[in-house]
Every structure is written in structure tokens, then in C-alpha cells.
């Protein structure tokens, strides 16, 4: 089937298999930041934004994004780098494989939650697994990022 | 040479950080040619079977299918997938495809085609007739049992590790000093218990992945997510029966390894497809495959006997380990060694020890290397037994350890007789105790709501590289404008060694970190390195960097003396210029770099190789604080405190995150990550839905500090950090659980059910 959607600000058309996942369509379109870690909605690596909400693209049918707006890390490079360097400042990015999914979800969280405390941050991001860091360095980075500008 | 630390011991950001956090396509699957054939494996539904007939004609004729391979199409030469220095201690027990299938998930056929859809569709057309055999599923019954996992005549063991395929033995041995039985029989207090750890998955976020193609010279090029590029070159040459000169292995960025990628899990399947078809091919493991057919930790059952006098002085330690290597022997003979050699030596006052072991084949998936490599299992057992001994003595387990722990200067009979040059274990203990407020919280605090908060403790050690085996090499070159290229053969897998080794080089050459360009591993380009495993990278490769830098400094000064027309003995190099302290002559490094590119017959480069006849242990103390619900047995992590002696921390941030990450993995092992098989030998926890990695809600707070010692044989005093960090959570949490509930859980993971049952049965 043919679908049309806005990918990182550009309107595109795509001929997809009926059962294609959004993950596979995005990789085909060259959005290589989108990773797959589990295939079962457990790891959060494939997180992208669909109409501004964070979604797990590995189990999201591509057909559902017809007429939607999809954003991957490729579409938010400036924001990714800004938060990403806070991660790197802690050494928290480690292997980096889960970073794109985490960063997408942190950006979504920033839009959705107003001055979240540590418990709500952990809860919001609990679906983003990381096997390298043990999470506490990520939390240090997120706290510093959210409090940037010395507020 | 005196080294001043300018970059070393500072928390610089990793050189690849920006690419990683902006999601650049730098991993194996991102880089694979778009026309790569998709390779998949038809896997055995039986734990033990022979292929009686296999018919691939329909699958081969299916649309988009390029090749289907069975055991008839592969070389009949056994090899091991274990990434170890040749001759490998792991037996040569594998074929790429075999007529005998040895676990549920074992490879039956390889199928490659133009798309994932085509391959998955055609796979169901491969017709296999199996002769189903009885499997060996209970590892207690494997040794000398009636059913053999490897009855074949061309099974081969290259090293004297006590392996015997006719007895289902992958390895067997004993090491002892003094008369353990006699000493223990004279002890006032003896603990004798059996501890059981599971075949945990490394579960790195990037699964096993590789792609292959033939280059312009017709050579097999392999781009793989691997910790061991050079071993992979050799292993693939063995497996495919082609000369090593025909294989090139390139390591891109890796999405985590933790030892999983110290085994050639996926590479061989893509490689044989490319060899057969001449086409690029890629093998991307699914998470399901990574769970059921990979290289997890060796399941071990460890019997510990510890004897102490009435004052709590440990007199003797006796350890027997039964290790389950599964269907193949990857890392079987070596992991088991660490279960005794890296647990017993913590107690330096003991008069005798014995460490005996058997490593058996079963019809489970093959085990492999996982961070800690046997030490993790051994330390769960020995540290738990020491905690149980403390309980028997009515002694604080911290006090018991303070009386018995190994100290700097000790000779360690259970650690290959090495003398301990650097050890801050006593300081680690003192600081950890302070950080968690042990004296106030031990053994527990009743919260008054049916819950108690309790604390538990464990110590750990590991090694730094494999002594008298591992080899690390680097090359460094001076370029125009005076920047350097550092070629390393060690594999950065997210650990940051590209950066930390550059830090060492920058300090040795007194330059900025940006002046060092680092090149990751490509076996055609990089100097030989055994690989990033066995906690070797900073300790061994770091030392190779130090040596290479000293050599290139000499060459820079010599070249400068030619350009300045003076005696080189009158010159000094300060990183920016070569100059005469007593005279006027000087030339900048930039000018030297530019001048050597014109009319010059000296290469200003240096290569160095390093090996070590010792493996200095890092040390660590971990203390867990948990909250236990007395009604349900549920455990929640509250706080985890760790103090580590890894010698000098080359990059404190990266060392800290290694530690925090290792602890979180250890918490997973302790509390959540179960591995179980059905009675037919099928692994139950075959996805992240069943195999529960800890999330950020599960780990509690983790607080890490360092107590540095100075290791004279390491670069800038550094030892290792990568593995030791996973070793303390299981025994420390088990101790906290016992302090809260009186129940010692000796089989991991420590679930609410086990605690509840234990409390009920008391």
C-alpha cells in the first residue's frame, strides 16, 4: 500500500507491505539512528515520535503513520547533541546503541512533564533499557540537562 | 621516564561521543551494503537429534533465495568459536553445520536470499527428518553418563585441560596447597554449602551481527560486532578451511559486548554464504536467537567448605566447581579456573586450599564468556559461604573480612603464587562501611510496617589480562603539522578504550588529546592484539602505548638533531618543540612533522608489543542495602555502595560508569535474570519479556568511589576495571536478604518465592 507522511519535516510517500513495521520503513528511508534491541516492546531502542508522542516503532505498523508526522533523531540533531553532550559529560553514552531511543524519549518527556522529580523521570524512562550504564549516570545527565541555564 | 599526568586521571569525553549521541550510522547493520544477502538459520527443535534426511530443493527454488546450505556443504574440520589465543584451551568440537544437533536452537541449515521476507518464507520449505535422541539435560548426570554429547572421532582437545569427549568432559582438574581435609577437621567452625548460578545472558543492546563481502583481491572481508578481530580472522580461516591471509576483519562501533562477542557467534554464517555465492551477506541475530543460541555465562554449581578457628581466622578453603558448558566447549576450560583462582585468594591468612572442578557437556546451548568469567560464579559461592561463616561465629561479616583479607605484599598460593604489588582492599572496606553507614544499619532496621531494611557485604577481585598469554600491540606515527595516528588492535566496545588509550598517549607525548587520532581495529591495518577481554585493555594495551610513545619520542629527538645539526644528547622534547636547554637551537614538532614529508628516509613511527607475566588483581568491596517485605519476600534495592581499587583511574568518569553498569548487571543476576529449561530442553526465557533485565526502577541508588593503589607494572599505575564490577552484587544482596529474613538463598536469582518459602519453612 502507499502511505504519505511527514518524516523529519519532509513530506514523503512510501510504498509499503501491509504488515511492514514503522521500524523497517524508517531504516529503509535511511534513518539509521533507529535501532532494534528486542522486537518485543521491552527495550525502547526503537523509540520515535509520532505526532509528538513517543512510540515504539518495532511494533508500530507503518500503515498507521499515514498522514502523520514522524520524527527520528535525524530530525532533531541540534537537540540530540545538546542533551547528548550532557550524557557524554558523564560517560553515560557508553556503547551508544540505546542512546537514540533514550534521547528521543527524554525530548518527549521534556515536552510532556513539567519539572519532573527523579521518581517521575525514572518512571517515564523505565521502558528505555541500557545494559552498559546502570542508569545512574544517565540520571545525573538528565538532571543537569533539565536544570541547564542555572534555574 | 617520569610521566606527569595531564590527561590521564581526568574525565574527558569519549572521542566517538558526538557520533553516538546524534545517532550516526556507525554500527555493523548501519554499514552493511544494501544489496547484502539476508542470512538466516533453520534451528533445531530438538535438544539432541541426528539429521536423517534433509531436502532443500523446494527452498532453493523459492523466489529470492540464493543459497541453502546443510552439513553436507561445510568443511568437516572441527574448530572452536571461542576467541582465545591459539592453541585454544577450548576443544575443537564444532562444525559450521553438523549432522548431530546438540541443543534446541542448534543450526540445521543456512539459508540466504534477497530479502528477509523471502528467506523467512522459504525456510519452511526445508524438509528435515530427525532421529530424535535422548538428551543430557541434567548437568549432574553428564560426567560418565550413558549419553555422549560429542561421540565423534574428530573431536579434538589442543591443550591438556583434562578434556575427554567419551566422558562428556570439557575440562577437569585440581589445584591445591596444604592439607585441606586435615586442617578443616581441626577447625572450630566449618561452613559447607552448595551454591548455584545460572547461565545469564550478557544481553548487550546490539545483538550479534556481521556482514561479509569479497574485496577487489577476492579476499573475504568481515565487518563484525566483535571484541576479538584477530581471533575472528583465525577462527574463520579454520572454520572455512581457507588460508588466514584470505580473511580481513574490521570492527566498527559495537553496541556492547560484555564477553558475549568474545565468541564468534554470528560471523561464520555470513562468511560461508559469501564464500559460496561471491555475494555480500549479512547475519543479524534477532533477540530471540541471541537468547537461545549464543554464548551466555557458564551455569555453575559450587560446593564450598570453609574452616575457621574460634577467633574467626579462616584456616582453609575447599572449592569444587561443576560447570555446565552446554553443547560446545567455548571458554569451558578457562572460565572454571577463575571460580577458584579469583575467589580463594581473597583470604590471605588461610593455611591451605583445594580447588577441584569438572566442566561437562550437556544438551543446553553452549556457554561462553561473560564479564567476570567464572570469578563471578566463584565469588557468589565463596563470599556467601564467608557470610554464612560470620553468622555461625556471631560475628559482623565486615569484621570477619577485616581479620582475613589479603594484603599488599602477600604471596597468593591460590593465585599462581603471585605476589600482591598493589592492594587497597582494606581501604575499600573502610570507606564502603562509612559510605553506607554499616555500623548503624547492620544487620537490619525494622521499618515498622512489615518491612525491614538490611545491609549485606561482599568483596571481589579479578585479574588484569591473562599472564604469559595475552599480547597487545600498538603503532604510533607522526604526521604533518605534528599530529599523531595511534593504531590499536584492542576493541572499543563502548568501554571507551579508543579514548583512554589516547589519554595515555597524550600524556606520554605531552600533547593535547585532539592531537592523537585513533584507529580502531582492522586486521589488515592494526597491529596484533589478542583482543578486548580478560580485563586486559588498559593494563596491557595501555602499557604497549607507553612503550611505543617512548620510542617515538627518541625518534623525534633524533630527527630534530639532524635538522638542527647538533648532538641529540643536547636536546629535549617537551611535546611542542625539541630544544637545547643549554643553547639556542630549537625546532617545533609541527616543523618536524612537515619536513619529514619531503626528502626523508626515516619513518617517524614506533610500534610496541607488550605482554605480562603477572595479572595484578583489582579489588572491590560492595555493600547492598535492601528493603524486604516480610510478608511476601519481595526485595527492593535501596542503595548500593561500591569502592574499587583499580590502581590509577585513567578516566574517572568511564571507570565510574563501568562500575555502575557492572553493578546493575550484577543486580540483574542476583534478583531477576532466570534461565530455565523445559523437560524437553527448550529455554523458557527466550525474549526480554521473560528474561528480565533490570530497568532504572529496579536498581536503586548506586554510589561508587575509588581507593587507588599504584600498580608498578601497569600504565601510570593502572590495573583493570571492566570485569570485577559485576562480582559483588549477588553475594552482597544474598547477605542482605539473610540479614533481613534469616534465609540464605543459595540458588540465583534470589526471588520473592524463594525467600518466602525459606521464611515459611523455618
Summarize the structure.
The complex is a heterodimer of chains A (151) and B (762). By secondary structure, chain A is of the alpha+beta class. Chain A has helices spanning 22-28, 77-90, 99-112, 118-124, 136-146, and strands at 2-7, 10-15, 47-50, 53-56, 69-71.
- Fold-level CATH name of the largest domain in chain A: DNA polymerase, domain 1
Low-confidence stretches of chain A: none
How many DSSP H or I helices of chain B?
19
Given the helix and strand composition of chain B, which structural class is it? alpha+beta
Shape of chain A: globular
| Class by alpha and beta content of chain A | alpha+beta
Into how many domains do the coordinates of chain A divide?
2
The spatial strand order of the largest sheet of chain A comes to 2-1-5-3-4
CATH class of the largest domain in chain A: Mainly Alpha
Helix content of chain A: 25-40%
How would you describe what is shown here?
The complex is a heterodimer of chains A (151) and B (762). With 151 residues, chain A is of the alpha+beta class. Chain A has two domains: 2-74, Roll (Ubiquitin-like (UB roll)), CATH 3.10.20.30; 76-150, Orthogonal Bundle (DNA polymerase, domain 1), CATH 1.10.150. Chain A is built from five helices and five strands. Chain A has helices at 22-28, 77-90, 99-112, 118-124, 136-146; strands spanning 2-7, 10-15, 47-50, 53-56, 69-71. In chain A, a hairpin with a 2-residue loop joins strand 1 (2-7) and strand 2 (10-15). In chain A, helix 2 (77-90) crosses helix 3 and helix 2 (77-90) packs across helix 5. Chain B has 762 residues and is α+β, with helices and mostly antiparallel strands. Chain B has four domains: 32-135 and 208-284, Aldehyde Oxidoreductase, domain 3 (Alpha-Beta Complex); 136-196 and 295-420, Aldehyde oxidase/xanthine dehydrogenase, molybdopterin binding domain (Aldehyde Oxidoreductase, domain 4, 2-Layer Sandwich), CATH 3.30.365.10; 424-464 and 616-762, Aldehyde oxidase/xanthine dehydrogenase, molybdopterin binding domain (Aldehyde Oxidoreductase, domain 4, 2-Layer Sandwich), CATH 3.30.365.10; 467-610, Aldehyde Oxidoreductase, domain 4 (2-Layer Sandwich), CATH 3.30.365. Helices cover 26% and strands 24% of the residues of chain B. Chain B has 19 helices and 29 strands. In chain B, helix 9 (332-341) runs parallel beside helix 10, helix 14 (497-508) runs parallel beside helix 15 (537-564) and helix 17 (652-671) crosses helix 18. At the A-B interface, helix 2, helix 3 and helix 5 of A face helix 1 and helix 17 of B.
Amino acid at each position: 500500500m502507499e502511505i504519505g507522511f511527514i518524516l523529519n519535516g519532509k513530506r514523503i510517500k512510501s510504498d509499503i507491505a501491509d504488515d511492514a513495521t514503522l521500524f523497517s520503513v524508517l531504516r529503509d528511508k535511511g534513518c539509521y539512528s533507529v535501532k532494534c534491541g528486542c522486537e518485543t516492546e521491552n527495550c525502547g531502542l526503537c523509540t520515535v515520535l509520532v505526532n509528538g508522542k513517543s512510540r515504539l516503532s518495532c511494533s508500530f505498523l507503518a500503515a498507521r503513520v499515514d498522514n502523520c508526522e514522524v520524527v527520528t533523531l535525524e530530525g532533531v540533531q541540534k537537540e540530540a547533541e545538546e542533551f547528548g553532550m550532557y550524557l557524554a559529560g558523564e560517560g553515560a553514552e557508553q556503547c551508544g546503541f540505546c542512546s537514540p531511543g533514550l534521547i528521543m524519549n527524554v525530548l518527549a518527556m521534556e515536552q510532556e512533564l513539567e519539572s519532573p522529580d527523579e521518581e517521575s523521570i525514572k518512571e517515564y524512562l523505565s521502558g528505555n533499557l541500557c545494559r552498559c550504564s546502570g542508569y545512574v549516570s544517565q540520571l545525573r545527565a538528565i538532571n543537569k540537562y533539565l536544570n541547564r541555564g542555572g534555574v | 621516564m617520569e610521566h606527569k599526568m595531564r590527561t590521564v586521571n581526568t574525565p574527558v569525553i569519549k572521542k566517538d561521543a558526538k557520533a553516538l549521541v546524534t545517532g550516526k550510522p556507525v554500527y555493523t547493520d548501519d554499514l552493511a551494503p544494501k544489496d547484502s544477502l539476508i542470512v538466516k538459520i533453520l534451528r533445531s527443535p530438538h535438544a539432541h537429534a541426528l539429521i536423517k534426511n534433509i531436502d532443500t530443493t523446494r527452498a532453493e527454488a523459492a523466489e529470492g533465495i540464493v543459497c541453502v546450505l546443510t552439513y553436507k556443504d561445510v568443511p568437516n574440520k572441527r574448530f572452536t568459536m571461542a576467541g582465545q589465543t591459539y592453541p585454544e584451551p577450548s576443544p575443537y568440537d564444532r562444525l559450521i553445520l553438523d549432522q548431530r544437533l546438540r541443543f534446541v536452537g542448534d543450526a540445521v541449515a543456512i539459508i540466504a536470499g534477497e530479502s528477509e521476507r523471502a528467506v523467512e518464507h522459504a525456510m519452511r520449505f526445508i524438509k528435515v527428518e530427525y532421529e530424535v535422541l535422548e538428551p543430557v539435560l541434567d548437568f549432574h548426570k553428564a560426567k560418565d553418563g550413558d549419553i555422549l554429547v560429542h561421540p565423534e572421532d574428530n573431536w579434538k582437545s589442543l591443550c591438556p585441560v583434562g578434556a575427554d569427549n567419551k566422558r562428556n568432559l570439557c575440562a577437569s582438574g585440581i589445584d591445591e596447597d596444604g592439607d585441606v581435609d586435615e586442617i578443616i577437621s581441626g577447625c572450630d567452625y566449618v561452613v559447607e554449602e552448595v551454591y548455584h548460578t545460572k547461565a545469564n545472558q550478557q544481553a548487550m543492546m546490539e545483538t550479534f551481527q556481521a556482514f561479509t563481502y569479497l574485496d577487489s583481491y577476492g579476499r573475504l572481508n568481515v565487518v563484525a560486532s566483535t571484541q576479538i578481530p584477530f581471533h575472528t580472522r583465525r577462527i574463520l580461516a579454520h572454520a572455512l578451511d581457507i588460508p588466514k591471509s584470505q580473511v580481513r576483519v574490521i570492527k566498527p562501533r559495537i553496541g556492547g559486548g560484555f564477553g558475549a562477542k568474545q565468541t564468534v557467534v554470528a560471523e561464520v554464517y555470513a562468511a560461508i554464504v559469501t564464500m559460496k555465492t561471491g555475494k555480500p551477506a549479512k547475519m543479524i541475530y534477532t533477540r530471540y536467537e541471541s537468547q537461545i543460541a549464543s554464548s551466555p555465562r557458564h551455569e555453575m554449581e559450587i560446593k564450598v567448605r570453609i574452616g575457621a578457628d574460634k577467633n574467626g581466622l579462616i584456616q582453609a578453603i575447599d572449592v569444587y566447581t561443576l560447570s555446565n558448558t552446554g553443547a560446545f566447549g567455548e571458554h569451558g576450560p578457562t572460565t572454571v579456573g577463575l571460580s577458584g583462582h579469583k575467589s580463594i585468594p581473597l583470604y590471605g591468612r588461610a593455611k591451605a586450599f583445594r580447588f577441584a572442578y569438572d566442566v561437562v557437556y550437556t544438551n543446553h546451548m553452549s556457554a561462553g564468556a561473560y564479564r567476570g568469567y567464572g570469578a563471578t560464579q566463584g565469588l557468589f559461592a565463596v563470599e556467601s559461604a564467608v557470610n554464612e561463616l560470620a553468622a555461625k561465629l556471631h560475628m559482623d561479616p565486615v569484621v570477619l573480612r577485616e581479620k582475613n583479607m589479603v594484603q599488599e605484599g602477600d604471596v597468593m598460593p591460590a593465585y599462581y603464587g603471585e605476589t600482591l604489588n598493589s592492594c587497597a582492599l582494606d581501604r575499600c572496606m573502610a570507606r564502603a562501611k562509612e559510605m553506607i553507614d554499616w555500623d548503624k544499619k547492620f544487620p537490619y532496621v525494622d521499618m515498622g510496617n512489615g518491612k525491614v531494611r538490611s545491609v549485606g557485604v561482599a568483596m571481589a577481585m579479578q585479574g588484569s589480562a591473562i599472564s604469559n598469554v595475552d599480547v597487545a600491540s600498538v603503532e604510533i606515527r607522526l604526521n604533518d603539522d605534528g599530529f599523531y595516528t595511534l593504531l590499536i588492535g584492542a576493541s572499543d566496545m563502548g568501554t571507551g578504550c579508543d579514548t583512554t588509550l589516547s589519554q595515555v598517549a597524550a600524556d606520554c607525548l605531552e600533547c593535547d588529546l585532539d592531537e592523537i587520532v585513533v584507529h580502531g581495529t582492522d586486521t589488515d591495518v592494526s597491529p596484533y592484539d589478542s583482543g578486548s577481554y580478560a580485563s586486559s585493555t588498559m593494563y596491557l594495551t595501555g602499557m604497549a602505548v607507553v612503550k611505543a610513545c617512548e620510542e617515538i619520542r627518541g625518534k623525534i629527538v633524533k630527527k630534530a638533531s639532524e635538522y638542527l645539526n647538533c648532538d641529540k644528547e643536547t636536546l629535549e622534547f617537551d611535546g611542542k618543540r625539541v630544544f637545547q636547554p643549554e643553547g639556542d637551537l630549537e625546532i617545533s614538532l609541527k616543523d618536524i612533522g612537515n619536513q619529514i614529508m619531503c626528502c626523508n628516509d626515516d619513518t617517524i613511527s614506533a610500534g610496541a608489543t607488550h605482554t605480562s607475566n603477572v595479572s595484578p588483581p583489582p579489588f572491590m568491596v560492595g555493600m547492598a542495602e535492601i528493603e524486604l517485605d516480610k510478608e511476601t519476600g519481595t526485595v527492593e534495592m535501596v542503595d548500593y555502595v561500591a569502592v574499587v581499587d583499580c590502581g590509577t583511574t585513567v578516566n574517572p568518569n568511564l571507570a565510574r560508569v563501568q562500575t555502575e553498569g557492572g553493578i546493575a548487571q550484577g543486580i540483574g543476576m542476583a534478583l531477576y535474570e532466570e534461565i530455565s529449561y523445559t523437560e524437553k530442553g527448550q529455554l523458557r526465557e527466550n525474549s526480554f519479556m521473560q528474561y528480565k533485565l533490570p530497568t532504572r526502577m529496579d536498581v536503586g541508588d548506586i554510589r561508587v568511589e575509588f581507593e587507588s593503589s599504584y600498580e608498578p607494572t601497569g600504565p601510570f599505575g593502572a590495573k583493570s576495571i571492566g570485569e570485577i564490577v559485576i562480582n559483588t552484587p549477588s553475594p552482597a544482596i544474598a547477605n542482605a536478604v539473610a540479614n533481613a529474613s534469616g534465609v540464605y538463598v543459595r540458588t540465583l536469582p534470589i526471588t520473592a518465592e524463594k525467600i518466602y518459602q525459606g521464611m515459611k519453612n523455618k
